[in-house]
Amino acid sequence: QKEVEQNSGPLSVPEGAIASLNCTYSDRGSQSFFWYRQYSGKSPELIMFIYSNGDKEDGRFTAQLNKASQYVSLLIRDSQPSDSATYLCAVPPLSGGYNKLIFGAGTRLAVHP
Amino acid sequence: GAVVSQHPSRVICKSGTSVKIECRSLDFQATTMFWYRQFPKQSLMLMATSNEGSKATYEQGVEKDKFLINHASLTLSTLTVTSAHPEDSSFYICSARGGPGTSDTQYFGPGTRLTVL
User: From the list B43, B46, B110, which residue is nearest A105 (CB)?
Assistant: First the structure.
C-alpha cells in the first residue's frame, strides 16, 4: 500500500460546482496534512494545511480531516476554470527524519465553463 | 512571507557538462531544503534532503556523486548535476522548510527546467 494515495483523475466539474478531492494515508500516527496545487509546467504552491480532525476553511477551500478513517479531503467551492490543476496531498512520515513530506501522485482537476 | 527563489529558471547544456542550480529562501531561514525532480506528467520525486552545514541525505536510487548538494547557509542550497546526460533532462524543484506554518510546511521554488542536448 502506498503511503499517500490519491485518485489520479481527471476529475471534471462544471464551473460553479463543488470539487471534492480525496486522499488516504497509511500512517495512522500522522499529525499534519498538506494540500498543494500544481499548474502544468509550474512548481507546487501551498494551499493549506490541517492537523486537527474536522474542517478548516480558507476562502473557497475547505480541508477536511478524519484521522480515524485516515482520510483527508479538499473541497473547492464555486470552482473556476483557473482552479484547473493537479492537487497534491502530502503527509510527513513518522519515520525518516528531516521532516520530509510524502506526496501523493496528485489528482488532476478540470473545471469546464 | 515564505518566498523561495531558484536560478536559473531554464538551462540548456551539452551532454557531459555540469550544471549548478541555486535555491534561496528570501524572507526566512530555511532549516532544511529539499530537492525534487519531476518528469513530464509524473509525480514529484524527492531526490535529497539537506540541512545547513551537514551532508545531504539522498533518497534510494539517487546517485550522490552525480547530484552534488551543498547547503552553505540557512538561505542557500545548490544542486550540481555533474556530467549531465539527456536522461537528466527534467524539471528540478527545490523547497525549503522553516517558514511560517507548521514545522513540516515546505515552500517551493519556481523550478528549473534542465534540457541536456
Answer: B43
For residue range B7-23, what is the model confidence (pLDDT) as tens digits?
A: 999 999 999 999 999 99
Beta bridge partners of B35: B48, B94
Q: Which of A3, A100, A102, A103 to mutate to test the interface with B (most CBs of B within 10 A)?
A: A100
- Please name the amino acid found at residue B85: H
Q: pLDDT value at position B95? A: 96
| Residue pLDDT, tens place only, B55-82 | 899 999 999 999 999 988 989 999 999 9
CB of B2 closer than 8 Å to CB of B27:
yes
Q: For B87, phi and psi rounded to 5 degrees?
A: -70, -10
Tell me if B101 and A49 make a contact (CB, 8 A cut-off): yes
